[in-house]
Amino acid sequence: MALKRNREAGEALLDKPRILSAEPGALSQWLFYGALLLLGTLGALGCFFGAFQVPVAPVPAALCGIACLLACLFLFLVKNQPWAVSLALIGLWVGVVALFFRDLVQGCAHTVNRVLQAYSEKFGIALPSLAVDTLSPSVMERQCTVFFCLLTFPFLFFLGWFLVGKRSCLGAFLLSGLMLLFPMIISLVPPGLYLGALLLFWLALLLTAPTLGRRHRLLEEGGRFHAAGTAAARPAMLLTVLGAGILCMGLASLLFPQGAYQRPQIAADLRDGLTQGFGIQAALRGGVGSGNGRVNLDALGTRSYTGETVLRVKYDWGDSQREEFVNGEKDYLKSFAGSVYTGHSWERLSQEDEAQLEELLNGTHPQTLADLFQEGFGNYSTTRASIPYTLSVENVGASPRCLYLPYGLTAESVDPESMEYVEDGFLQSPRFFSGTRSYEVEAWGRTDFVMTYSGRASSAVANAYAGSLLATGQFSSWEQVVASTDMREFMETLSQEMPGSQGESLSLEEVERWTIPSSLIGYLSPEQQDLARSLEAYNRFVYEHYTQLPDSLRQTLEQYLLDNHLVLTVGNGFSVSDSSPLMLAQQIASTLAAQCVYTLSPPSLPEGQDFVEYFLFQSRQGYCVHFATAAVALFRAAGVPARYAEGYAVPSGEEGWVDVPDYNAHAWVEIYMGGTGWIPVEVTPAGPDAPAASEDARPVAEPAAPTPEAASPTPTPTPLPSPSASPAASPSASPSAEPSPSASPSSAPGGAPAAGGRTSGRAWGAAAGAAGGLLLLLGALLFRRRLILARRNRRFAQPDRNQAALALYAHILGLQQAALAHLPAWRRELPQELESLALKARFSQHTLSQEELQPFQREALLLEDALRRNLPPLWRLWLQWGPALL
User: Fold this and answer.
1) b/e 17-30 (16+ beta carbons within 10 angstroms → b)
2) Which end of the chain is more exposed for a tag (fewer CB within 10 A), N or C?
3) 680 and 407 in contact (C-beta within 8 Å)?
4) Is 701 exposed, middle or buried (0-12, 13-18, 19+ CB in 10 A)?
5) Is the dihedral of CA 504, 508, 509, 513 positive or negative?
6) pTM as predicted
């Protein structure tokens, strides 16, 4: 019969008809399990002892291993053996241990010391070692061989117990993998022979899992066994697979020798991640500059820092000897740019917008706009912007998947193997596992000299026309060309084509979305024309996407701009004020500094409220993320394209390698000027708690409280009235009222870390890691339960009512077994009709009706309700979150 009673579990077993095969003979079983145990033991112990270079004599070790293998096979495969024989074998091993006990202890100590030495060299720390006798190498080898031989028998015993006794491939895999784990943690690669043997062993486990596994375990009966469905492969046949595997590995070694082998990039990436870490610490630490996916504004909380170095950078200005070029000012290294403001987060562009951007740019990357302007339209600055430099970055503590890069990046220095462009905002590492930890790029120096696109493009056209005049040979110098009548007439024609040439008032968008007329663009080279059209398309994209705000917020912020006299001044034609967005930036920064208080412990955002509205009109407390987000929204409301950026601020005033501490993690604003590109703008007020916001990105000494005599009024924008009586929210709160590093065990991002801050920071980091791990575990349990319940409900509701009935019946049997096990007073038997209907569903050619399916559903609901009401709390909790029966 197909319906059987499982002798081990005591539950009804409904399954497909089994294929009956003759039980393998004794020789077949000895060969099969002997090969598995030999591969597993040779691979596991060989990897461990070989990786740590423990001296073991091969001949005695091989002879002892064969003897132990035969003994273990005898113990597990010989049926009805006298108990005295098994006891004698174990007693023999105990006797050998007693006989060679001193050598065993010394060999174990030598092995442990080899392991500790390897770990000490890897981590650069001094680990203690076990006391051993000072002996010759031959004696040490003998003692280590004794330890290896006496370790072989218990290892073989437990490996055989997993494979033969419990038929657990998972247990055998974990036991053998444990021996490989010790060297692989510190990237010690075992000898190829032993590693190959272990891989073959795991391959055999994978192939035998359907036969040996728990779900399809062999059911022996009357000298025959049942092999499940398609997993009916006879174990002896797997010896052929092992032989084929060995042959393939041998051919691979011959055809692709190790010296000529080049590791695939994903394998190298994974190896680097294992050896250098996956950046988990930076991910758990979180905060500004630690990710490049999105910024969840709802989750912002209190920030603290330890002062540890996260980046090391070096600027090389080449042949330039000017002092102001040697790291003379604070620099911004960007790792993320937020494009879409939702009211609760900063997000990247949507897939549709990203596809549109890629199509219109046609291979041009806005991350290198400064380089494109320099190469395509020429340089119009005599300051730092005309000087290229090389920046070297070493990531020692930040997220390795983030790239921290400067503005003015050159296209040629972007290495596609270690860097990839992300939309139009930033770059990231393409190596998912290990990231990119050290890199070198070239960039153009930043400058305050900004231009609109119309000004930059018209200058390029004028220069191209002047160059064509000079090429005619009619003029001997550039000065003659500029003073010529032809040039004056051309400039008059060009001025008539400029935006606002008729004296009309234009917005900044209208000025920036100007395009070179077809009558003039022909003076540019083909490369310049392609660049101009790409830039004009990008300008349109920028004004369509980077002035985006929720409608309700836009109206509120437009009124805020009027109330605080924050006005963007724009002229017309050549008189357009290119610096007006920067002037507006100064006004916004001053207003925010006057009305809002910098603190590392801002209040949480109430549910349902817009982040910017809450910060500007209610809390008025926050750190750089709050200030930068609010400023971006104000720029957008004023019609200036802007976006949120974060990364690290590099301290100025140092030569050579510069250490960037973790409290220099920072967020700032980027505004767009069509003739310059994206420009970083500082809007966070500098202070003792905000070193990254200061001019040199260094900690600022906390000023003393002003005395009445020394106090003098300073003209600032009119602060808004405080909505609450909280002193911390008052705009007039003095700097001394703000939290400082000395007032708490952890340091602030604006000042040097307090004494003991490093220890406290690590303690808080450990606590945060533990809490994060607990939350991750709870989340995994919740996800697992929901997944099990969803799959079960799908099986119960599937269109095939026969299969649905069988799934319900199996669930009912599990509930009944739980009730019998945990409810002593449970005496209720299952209705007889359920078993009859289950047999019909399993073997009949007819499909159950909906009415025949209902008894299964009623019985399942009845049992679940009874268990919920009567089970003790702990057992009920286990059934809900363990097997998820409830």
Assistant:
1) ebeeeeebeeeebb
2) N
3) yes
4) exposed
5) positive
6) 0.56
